[in-house]
Amino acid sequence: MSKDLLHAQCYINGEWVEGKGALKEVHSPIDGKVIGTFREASPEQVDDAVKCAKEAQKLWKQTSLMERVELLEKAYKIGLKNMPMIWPGI
Hints:
4 strands; 3 helices; alpha+beta; two-stranded antiparallel ribbon; two-stranded antiparallel sheet
């Protein structure tokens, strides 16, 4: 699996931050070997992420259907463009 696809941080309020919780291992589904480690989000970080998501939902709710469609199409195109890099890791 490409190291580029492994992101061992938490995405909270639009930023990648280090988790402050327990250290966890990531195991390959192929052979069970450890392929990485990361820190979980702490309970406080989870609470913060939920609070931020609720605030973001207020703005998203005001986004028109066409704007949402355009954003999802853009995300889809980015996914297709990056499929050669993504596919080997699946």
